[in-house]
Protein backbone atom coordinates (compact mmCIF):
# COMPACT_ATOMS: atom_id res chain seq x y z
CA UNK A 1 0.00 0.00 0.00
CA UNK A 2 2.80 2.36 0.84
CA UNK A 3 4.48 1.64 -2.50
CA UNK A 4 1.19 2.21 -4.33
CA UNK A 5 0.54 5.48 -2.55
CA UNK A 6 4.00 6.64 -3.37
CA UNK A 7 3.48 5.96 -7.03
CA UNK A 8 0.23 7.98 -7.15
CA UNK A 9 0.85 11.70 -7.42
CA UNK A 10 -0.60 13.87 -4.72
CA UNK A 11 -2.54 16.04 -7.20
CA UNK A 12 -4.39 12.96 -8.46
CA UNK A 13 -5.40 11.97 -4.93
CA UNK A 14 -6.52 15.54 -4.29
CA UNK A 15 -8.58 15.63 -7.51
CA UNK A 16 -10.17 12.29 -6.66
CA UNK A 17 -11.11 13.54 -3.21
CA UNK A 18 -12.52 16.76 -4.67
CA UNK A 19 -14.64 14.82 -7.19
CA UNK A 20 -16.02 12.57 -4.49
CA UNK A 21 -16.93 15.57 -2.35
CA UNK A 22 -18.73 17.33 -5.25
CA UNK A 23 -20.69 14.19 -6.02
CA UNK A 24 -21.80 13.95 -2.41
CA UNK A 25 -22.83 17.60 -2.43
CA UNK A 26 -24.78 17.26 -5.72
CA UNK A 27 -26.48 14.11 -4.42
CA UNK A 28 -27.51 15.90 -1.26
CA UNK A 29 -28.88 18.80 -3.32
CA UNK A 30 -30.84 16.42 -5.52
CA UNK A 31 -32.26 14.68 -2.47
CA UNK A 32 -33.24 18.03 -0.96
CA UNK A 33 -34.92 19.08 -4.22
CA UNK A 34 -36.80 15.78 -4.40
CA UNK A 35 -37.93 16.21 -0.82
CA UNK A 36 -39.05 19.77 -1.57
CA UNK A 37 -41.08 18.67 -4.62
CA UNK A 38 -42.60 15.87 -2.60
CA UNK A 39 -43.72 18.35 0.04
CA UNK A 40 -45.12 20.66 -2.67
CA UNK A 41 -47.04 17.79 -4.25
CA UNK A 42 -48.42 16.50 -0.96
CA UNK A 43 -49.35 19.89 0.44
CA UNK A 44 -50.40 21.84 -2.66
CA UNK A 45 -50.80 19.82 -5.84
CA UNK A 46 -52.20 16.62 -4.39
CA UNK A 47 -55.34 18.22 -2.92
CA UNK A 48 -56.04 19.95 -6.25
CA UNK A 49 -55.56 16.70 -8.18
CA UNK A 50 -57.65 14.85 -5.62
CA UNK A 51 -60.50 17.23 -6.26
CA UNK A 52 -60.40 16.26 -9.94
CA UNK A 53 -59.80 12.55 -9.46
CA UNK A 54 -62.26 12.37 -6.60
CA UNK A 55 -65.53 13.96 -7.76
CA UNK A 56 -66.80 13.98 -4.18
CA UNK A 57 -64.41 16.79 -3.32
CA UNK A 58 -66.36 19.99 -2.64
CA UNK A 59 -64.42 22.23 -5.04
CA UNK A 60 -64.82 20.10 -8.20
CA UNK A 61 -64.77 22.24 -11.30
CA UNK A 62 -65.02 25.77 -9.88
CA UNK A 63 -62.27 28.11 -11.01
CA UNK A 64 -61.42 31.66 -10.05
CA UNK A 65 -60.88 32.31 -13.77
CA UNK A 66 -64.64 31.81 -14.33
CA UNK A 67 -66.48 34.57 -12.43
CA UNK A 68 -69.94 33.42 -13.56
CA UNK A 69 -69.53 30.27 -11.46
CA UNK A 70 -69.64 32.41 -8.31
CA UNK A 71 -72.81 34.40 -9.03
CA UNK A 72 -75.37 34.45 -6.23
CA UNK A 73 -77.84 32.78 -8.61
CA UNK A 74 -75.51 29.80 -9.25
CA UNK A 75 -75.60 26.78 -6.95
CA UNK A 76 -72.72 24.73 -5.66
CA UNK A 77 -71.55 21.91 -7.89
CA UNK A 78 -73.37 18.58 -7.61
CA UNK A 79 -71.61 15.39 -8.67
CA UNK A 80 -74.01 13.23 -10.67
CA UNK A 81 -73.23 9.52 -10.82
CA UNK A 82 -73.66 7.21 -13.79
CA UNK A 83 -77.35 6.51 -14.35
CA UNK A 84 -78.50 8.60 -11.38
CA UNK A 85 -81.89 10.35 -11.68
CA UNK A 86 -81.86 13.68 -9.83
CA UNK A 87 -85.11 15.55 -9.11
CA UNK A 88 -84.91 19.14 -7.85
CA UNK A 89 -86.81 22.41 -7.63
CA UNK A 90 -85.22 25.56 -8.97
CA UNK A 91 -85.94 29.28 -8.62
CA UNK A 92 -86.42 31.50 -11.67
CA UNK A 93 -83.20 32.94 -13.14
CA UNK A 94 -81.06 30.50 -11.12
CA UNK A 95 -78.66 27.80 -12.29
CA UNK A 96 -77.63 24.39 -10.99
CA UNK A 97 -74.15 23.09 -11.86
CA UNK A 98 -73.39 19.37 -12.31
CA UNK A 99 -70.19 17.39 -12.83
CA UNK A 100 -70.10 13.92 -14.43
CA UNK A 101 -67.10 11.64 -14.82
CA UNK A 102 -66.86 8.22 -16.48
CA UNK A 103 -63.62 6.22 -16.63
CA UNK A 104 -65.22 2.79 -17.04
CA UNK A 105 -62.90 0.86 -19.36
CA UNK A 106 -65.66 -1.46 -20.57
CA UNK A 107 -67.83 1.49 -21.59
CA UNK A 108 -64.98 3.35 -23.29
CA UNK A 109 -64.00 0.24 -25.30
CA UNK A 110 -67.48 -0.12 -26.79
CA UNK A 111 -67.87 0.23 -30.59
CA UNK A 112 -68.49 3.75 -31.80
CA UNK A 113 -72.16 2.99 -32.51
CA UNK A 114 -72.77 2.16 -28.83
CA UNK A 115 -70.17 4.35 -27.08
CA UNK A 116 -72.57 7.18 -26.46
CA UNK A 117 -73.93 9.26 -23.61
CA UNK A 118 -77.61 9.99 -22.95
CA UNK A 119 -78.23 13.37 -21.33
CA UNK A 120 -81.89 13.79 -20.40
CA UNK A 121 -83.49 16.84 -18.79
CA UNK A 122 -87.25 16.62 -18.13
CA UNK A 123 -89.26 19.54 -16.74
CA UNK A 124 -91.98 18.57 -14.28
CA UNK A 125 -93.35 22.11 -14.43
CA UNK A 126 -91.96 25.41 -15.65
CA UNK A 127 -89.23 26.14 -18.20
CA UNK A 128 -85.65 24.87 -17.81
CA UNK A 129 -82.72 24.87 -20.26
CA UNK A 130 -79.69 22.57 -20.35
CA UNK A 131 -76.13 23.67 -21.23
CA UNK A 132 -73.38 21.08 -21.76
CA UNK A 133 -69.59 21.31 -22.03
CA UNK A 134 -67.22 18.38 -22.62
CA UNK A 135 -63.97 20.02 -21.52
CA UNK A 136 -63.26 23.00 -19.37
CA UNK A 137 -61.73 25.77 -18.03
CA UNK A 138 -65.22 26.92 -17.07
CA UNK A 139 -68.67 25.46 -16.58
CA UNK A 140 -71.26 26.55 -19.18
CA UNK A 141 -72.49 30.09 -18.65
CA UNK A 142 -76.27 30.16 -19.32
CA UNK A 143 -76.38 33.94 -18.88
CA UNK A 144 -74.08 34.65 -21.83
CA UNK A 145 -74.08 31.30 -23.64
CA UNK A 146 -70.29 30.99 -23.50
CA UNK A 147 -68.32 27.87 -22.56
CA UNK A 148 -71.04 25.71 -24.13
CA UNK A 149 -70.69 22.86 -26.64
CA UNK A 150 -74.44 22.24 -27.04
CA UNK A 151 -77.62 23.35 -25.34
CA UNK A 152 -81.43 23.26 -25.31
CA UNK A 153 -83.50 25.29 -27.76
CA UNK A 154 -83.91 28.66 -26.06
CA UNK A 155 -86.01 30.63 -28.58
CA UNK A 156 -89.30 29.81 -26.81
CA UNK A 157 -90.50 27.24 -29.36
CA UNK A 158 -89.85 24.35 -26.96
CA UNK A 159 -90.44 25.95 -23.57
CA UNK A 160 -91.74 23.17 -21.33
CA UNK A 161 -90.50 20.34 -23.55
CA UNK A 162 -87.83 17.81 -22.45
CA UNK A 163 -84.22 18.12 -23.66
CA UNK A 164 -82.76 14.81 -24.85
CA UNK A 165 -79.20 14.48 -26.16
CA UNK A 166 -77.47 11.29 -27.27
CA UNK A 167 -73.89 12.25 -28.02
CA UNK A 168 -70.65 10.31 -28.65
CA UNK A 169 -68.79 9.54 -25.44
CA UNK A 170 -65.55 11.28 -26.42
CA UNK A 171 -64.62 12.72 -23.03
CA UNK A 172 -64.33 11.29 -19.54
CA UNK A 173 -65.64 14.48 -17.92
CA UNK A 174 -68.75 16.53 -18.67
CA UNK A 175 -69.95 19.79 -17.14
CA UNK A 176 -73.60 20.85 -17.05
CA UNK A 177 -75.62 23.91 -16.17
CA UNK A 178 -79.42 23.76 -15.73
CA UNK A 179 -80.98 27.20 -16.00
CA UNK A 180 -84.56 28.06 -15.00
CA UNK A 181 -86.41 30.67 -16.99
CA UNK A 182 -89.37 30.38 -14.59
CA UNK A 183 -90.00 28.77 -11.24
CA UNK A 184 -89.66 25.08 -12.08
CA UNK A 185 -88.91 21.53 -11.04
CA UNK A 186 -87.10 18.95 -13.14
CA UNK A 187 -85.38 15.57 -13.34
CA UNK A 188 -81.87 15.14 -14.76
CA UNK A 189 -80.19 11.91 -15.89
CA UNK A 190 -76.79 11.12 -17.43
CA UNK A 191 -76.43 7.55 -18.69
CA UNK A 192 -73.59 5.89 -20.62
CA UNK A 193 -75.20 2.43 -20.56
CA UNK A 194 -77.62 3.48 -23.31
CA UNK A 195 -79.09 -0.01 -23.77
CA UNK A 196 -80.90 0.32 -20.43
CA UNK A 197 -82.96 3.31 -21.56
CA UNK A 198 -86.37 2.67 -23.25
CA UNK A 199 -87.13 4.39 -26.54
CA UNK A 200 -90.84 4.91 -27.39
CA UNK A 201 -91.98 3.10 -30.51
CA UNK A 202 -92.96 5.10 -33.63
CA UNK A 203 -91.74 8.30 -31.95
CA UNK A 204 -94.22 7.87 -29.10
CA UNK A 205 -97.35 7.93 -31.26
CA UNK A 206 -100.63 6.75 -29.70
CA UNK A 207 -103.84 5.52 -31.37
CA UNK A 208 -107.32 5.39 -29.89
CA UNK A 209 -110.67 3.93 -30.90
CA UNK A 210 -114.12 3.95 -29.33
CA UNK A 211 -115.35 0.64 -27.93
CA UNK A 212 -118.64 1.82 -26.49
CA UNK A 213 -120.36 5.01 -25.44
CA UNK A 214 -118.31 5.18 -22.23
CA UNK A 215 -115.06 3.34 -23.07
CA UNK A 216 -112.10 3.65 -25.45
CA UNK A 217 -109.12 1.48 -26.35
CA UNK A 218 -105.63 2.99 -26.33
CA UNK A 219 -102.97 1.41 -28.56
CA UNK A 220 -99.22 2.03 -28.89
CA UNK A 221 -96.05 0.42 -30.26
CA UNK A 222 -93.73 -1.21 -27.69
CA UNK A 223 -90.55 0.55 -26.60
CA UNK A 224 -87.23 -0.55 -28.09
CA UNK A 225 -83.64 -0.70 -26.80
CA UNK A 226 -80.32 0.03 -28.52
CA UNK A 227 -78.25 -2.06 -28.24
CA UNK A 228 -80.61 -4.96 -27.60
CA UNK A 229 -80.09 -7.40 -24.78
CA UNK A 230 -79.20 -4.90 -22.07
CA UNK A 231 -82.73 -4.49 -20.72
CA UNK A 232 -86.41 -4.89 -21.60
CA UNK A 233 -89.66 -3.18 -20.72
CA UNK A 234 -91.09 -4.25 -17.37
CA UNK A 235 -94.41 -2.42 -17.66
CA UNK A 236 -96.34 0.46 -19.19
CA UNK A 237 -98.29 2.94 -17.08
CA UNK A 238 -101.39 4.43 -18.72
CA UNK A 239 -102.37 7.93 -17.63
CA UNK A 240 -105.59 9.82 -18.30
CA UNK A 241 -106.92 13.17 -17.10
CA UNK A 242 -110.05 15.22 -17.67
CA UNK A 243 -109.26 18.59 -19.24
CA UNK A 244 -111.12 21.87 -19.41
CA UNK A 245 -112.41 23.19 -22.70
CA UNK A 246 -109.89 26.02 -22.40
CA UNK A 247 -106.90 23.66 -22.00
CA UNK A 248 -105.00 23.98 -25.27
CA UNK A 249 -101.38 23.67 -26.35
CA UNK A 250 -99.34 26.85 -26.09
CA UNK A 251 -96.65 25.65 -28.56
CA UNK A 252 -96.74 22.55 -30.82
CA UNK A 253 -93.69 20.91 -29.19
CA UNK A 254 -95.17 20.99 -25.67
CA UNK A 255 -97.92 18.76 -24.35
CA UNK A 256 -99.86 20.56 -22.87
CA UNK A 257 -98.23 23.75 -21.57
CA UNK A 258 -95.35 24.73 -19.31
CA UNK A 259 -97.41 24.81 -16.11
CA UNK A 260 -99.18 21.49 -16.93
CA UNK A 261 -96.77 19.13 -18.65
CA UNK A 262 -98.10 15.74 -19.77
CA UNK A 263 -95.25 14.40 -21.93
CA UNK A 264 -92.64 13.87 -19.20
CA UNK A 265 -92.62 11.19 -16.53
CA UNK A 266 -92.50 13.56 -13.56
CA UNK A 267 -94.99 15.90 -15.22
CA UNK A 268 -97.53 13.07 -15.48
CA UNK A 269 -96.89 12.07 -11.88
CA UNK A 270 -97.34 15.67 -10.75
CA UNK A 271 -100.50 16.45 -12.73
CA UNK A 272 -102.38 13.13 -12.65
CA UNK A 273 -101.43 11.81 -9.20
CA UNK A 274 -101.41 8.12 -10.26
CA UNK A 275 -101.73 6.01 -13.42
CA UNK A 276 -105.13 4.73 -14.54
CA UNK A 277 -103.78 1.21 -15.11
CA UNK A 278 -100.54 -0.70 -15.64
CA UNK A 279 -99.88 -3.08 -18.54
CA UNK A 280 -97.05 -5.66 -18.22
CA UNK A 281 -94.50 -5.52 -21.02
CA UNK A 282 -95.08 -9.23 -21.70
CA UNK A 283 -98.77 -8.51 -22.47
CA UNK A 284 -97.92 -6.78 -25.77
CA UNK A 285 -98.46 -8.98 -28.83
CA UNK A 286 -98.25 -8.55 -32.58
CA UNK A 287 -96.15 -5.41 -32.28
CA UNK A 288 -98.83 -3.52 -30.33
CA UNK A 289 -99.88 -2.88 -26.74
CA UNK A 290 -103.46 -2.16 -25.71
CA UNK A 291 -105.33 -0.78 -22.73
CA UNK A 292 -109.04 -0.12 -22.21
CA UNK A 293 -110.13 3.05 -20.40
CA UNK A 294 -113.64 3.02 -18.94
CA UNK A 295 -115.87 5.82 -17.70
CA UNK A 296 -115.32 8.30 -20.52
CA UNK A 297 -118.00 10.99 -20.49
CA UNK A 298 -119.39 12.25 -23.82
CA UNK A 299 -118.59 15.78 -24.93
CA UNK A 300 -115.58 15.99 -22.56
CA UNK A 301 -111.91 16.54 -23.36
CA UNK A 302 -109.39 13.96 -22.10
CA UNK A 303 -105.62 13.59 -22.06
CA UNK A 304 -104.04 10.15 -22.57
CA UNK A 305 -100.39 9.13 -22.35
CA UNK A 306 -98.19 6.12 -21.63
CA UNK A 307 -94.93 5.73 -19.68
CA UNK A 308 -92.56 2.84 -20.45
CA UNK A 309 -90.36 1.57 -17.61
CA UNK A 310 -87.41 -0.78 -18.10
CA UNK A 311 -86.18 -3.47 -15.73
CA UNK A 312 -83.28 -1.12 -14.96
CA UNK A 313 -85.89 1.35 -13.64
CA UNK A 314 -85.47 3.99 -16.34
CA UNK A 315 -88.70 5.53 -17.62
CA UNK A 316 -89.75 7.61 -20.61
CA UNK A 317 -93.09 9.12 -21.64
CA UNK A 318 -94.74 8.77 -25.04
CA UNK A 319 -95.96 11.78 -27.05
CA UNK A 320 -99.49 11.77 -25.59
CA UNK A 321 -102.78 12.83 -27.18
CA UNK A 322 -105.92 14.84 -26.45
CA UNK A 323 -109.32 13.37 -27.31
CA UNK A 324 -112.71 15.05 -27.28
CA UNK A 325 -115.48 12.62 -28.18
CA UNK A 326 -118.90 14.02 -29.10
CA UNK A 327 -121.46 11.23 -29.27
CA UNK A 328 -124.81 12.03 -31.00
CA UNK A 329 -127.77 11.30 -28.76
CA UNK A 330 -130.40 9.38 -30.77
CA UNK A 331 -134.00 10.49 -29.87
CA UNK A 332 -135.94 9.05 -32.84
CA UNK A 333 -135.69 5.84 -34.82
CA UNK A 334 -136.69 7.24 -38.23
CA UNK A 335 -135.94 10.32 -40.25
CA UNK A 336 -138.04 13.49 -40.25
CA UNK A 337 -139.16 12.89 -43.86
CA UNK A 338 -140.53 9.47 -43.03
CA UNK A 339 -142.42 10.92 -40.09
CA UNK A 340 -143.95 13.58 -42.36
CA UNK A 341 -145.23 10.95 -44.81
CA UNK A 342 -146.63 8.78 -42.03
CA UNK A 343 -148.34 11.83 -40.50
CA UNK A 344 -149.97 12.82 -43.81
CA UNK A 345 -151.29 9.30 -44.43
CA UNK A 346 -152.60 8.99 -40.91
CA UNK A 347 -154.34 12.37 -41.17
CA UNK A 348 -156.05 11.35 -44.40
CA UNK A 349 -157.29 8.10 -42.88
CA UNK A 350 -158.68 9.90 -39.86
CA UNK A 351 -160.44 12.45 -42.11
CA UNK A 352 -162.05 9.66 -44.16
CA UNK A 353 -163.22 7.92 -41.02
CA UNK A 354 -164.84 11.14 -39.74
CA UNK A 355 -166.58 11.81 -43.08
CA UNK A 356 -167.87 8.22 -43.26
CA UNK A 357 -169.22 8.43 -39.72
CA UNK A 358 -171.04 11.66 -40.45
CA UNK A 359 -172.54 10.23 -43.68
CA UNK A 360 -173.79 7.11 -41.88
CA UNK A 361 -175.20 9.25 -39.10
CA UNK A 362 -177.15 11.40 -41.61
CA UNK A 363 -178.40 8.39 -43.60
CA UNK A 364 -179.80 6.41 -40.69
CA UNK A 365 -181.00 9.31 -38.68
Brief synopsis:
With 365 residues, the chain is α+β, with helices and mostly antiparallel strands. It has helices at 2-7, 10-53, 105-108, 265-272, 336-363; strands spanning 74-79, 85-90, 95-101, 116-125, 128-133, 150-151, 163-168, 173-180, 184-191, 206-212, 215-220, 233-243, 256-257, 260-261, 277-280, 289-294, 300-310, 315-317, 321-325.
**What is the CATH architecture annotation of the largest domain?**
Sandwich
Identify the CATH class of the largest domain. Answer: Mainly Beta
Tally of individual domains = 3
- Sheet with most strands: strand arrangement: 1-3-8-5-6
* Structure class: alpha+beta
How many helical stretches? 5
Helix-residue proportion: 10-25%
The residue ranges in which pLDDT falls below 50 over 5 or more consecutive positions are 1-21, 38-59, 328-335
* Mean pLDDT over the residues: 83
Largest sheet: 5 strands, mixed
Please indicate the percent range of residues in DSSP E strands (runs of 2 or more). 25-35%
Give the distance, in angstroms, between the N- and C-terminal Cα atoms. Answer: 185 Å
> How would the global form be characterised?
elongated
CATH topology of the largest domain: Jelly Rolls
Number of strands: 19
Amino acid sequence: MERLSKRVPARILQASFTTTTSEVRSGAAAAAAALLWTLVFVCILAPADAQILNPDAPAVGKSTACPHEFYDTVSNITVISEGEVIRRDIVANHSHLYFYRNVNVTTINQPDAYRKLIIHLEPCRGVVYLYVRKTRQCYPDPYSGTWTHFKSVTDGSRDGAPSFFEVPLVSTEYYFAVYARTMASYTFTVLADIGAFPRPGVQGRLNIKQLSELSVELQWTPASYVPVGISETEDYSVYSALLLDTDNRTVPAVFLKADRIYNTVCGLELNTFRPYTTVPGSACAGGFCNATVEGISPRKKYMFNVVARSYRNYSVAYAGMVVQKNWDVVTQATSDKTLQVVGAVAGTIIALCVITYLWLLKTYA
